[in-house]
Amino acid sequence: xxxxxxxxxxxxxxxxxxxxxxxxxxxxxxxxxxxxxxxxxxxxxxxxxxxxxxxxxxxxxxxxxxxxxxxxxxxxxxxxxxxxxxxxxxxxxxxxxxxxxxxxxxxxxxxxxxxxxxxxxxxxxxxxxxxxxxxxxxxxxxxxxxxxxxxxxxxxxxxxxxxxxxxxxxxxxxxxxxxxxxxxxxxxxxxxxxxxxxxxxxxxxxxxxxxxxxxxxxxxxxxxxxxxxxxxxxxxxxxxxxxxxxxxxxxxxxxxxxxxxxxxxxxxxxxxxxxxxxxxxxxxxxxxxxxxxxxxxxxxxxxxxxxxxxxxxxxxxxxxxxxxxxxxxxxxxxxxxxxx
Length: 340
Prior knowledge:
By secondary structure, the protein is an alpha/beta fold. The protein contains 12 helices and 15 strands. It has 2 domains: about 5-65; about 80-330, Metallo-beta-lactamase, Chain A (4-Layer Sandwich). It has helices spanning about 5-25, 30-50, 55-65, 110-120, 135-140, 140-150, 170-175, 235-240, 265-270, 290-295, 305-310, 325-330; strands at about 80-85, 90-95, 100-105, 125-130, 150-155, 180-185, 190, 195-200, 215-220, 225, 250, 275, 300-305, 310-315, 320-325. Strands 6-5-4-3-2-1-14-15 form an 8-stranded mixed beta sheet. Strands 7-8-9-10-11-12-13 form a 7-stranded mixed beta sheet. Helix 6 runs parallel beside helix 7.
């Protein structure tokens, strides 16, 4: 029998009271077992009634979420941003409603890991596959991801010529699968569920592929994010001078925390509440301490794939929540602030 309505919960409450009344009528004062049984039924009924109220629904949803029984993998809510752990590389899954996009896909060796991550989160098709720039630690995993999942549209910066080394395999798969291409100039964009994406960079012409990275601003019901690819100092300053709005809630830190990016002025202008760094331990020792210091001084809460594993930002229209893969694996509670 299901008690998922106020009427059903009321029946449980009445049953509990009836148990108590029967014992009073037949035997006088009920025994401990009968009292516990009746009390338990009454408490269950009250809990069910509470769960049907807006505060009750919120309480039980939060409880289930923290216990891992409701992580929304089956159906995305308003917005999810997943910074996938692919080492010192980029792969970012964004979901809104039934729509999904992937910004970059890590190195060639990350292809299976990215595909597996998407499928574990019930993403079987990408509405958009987005290339920030053609470096292999951003595009290397794309051919494998396209073979596994496919995509509706391939997105890149308008300044990208398509002649860059290492792009031939990806171009062949796009042509083979009949996937269209969307070239974005600053000011142009697209919609993903409730999220609006607008290209804000590159805000100029640059010889360096890193500075030519497609920079996307995302806005979703009062929450904003900036995805910078490997943009470095020169392009950061050009973007600031362009006058475009780059103040955001979440900054996907450029170039894996390198000190050639995230300049003091850029961090000040973006003024993020959250900063996510996709990196791993190697000879470059990223992220650099000076970059972390700038972010910390700006008041940003910093998350890193090398220490946190996959980082997931969940936004329901009112509140941002952060889930960290390595905390889940070690049964730690999600933290509001983590110093580094």
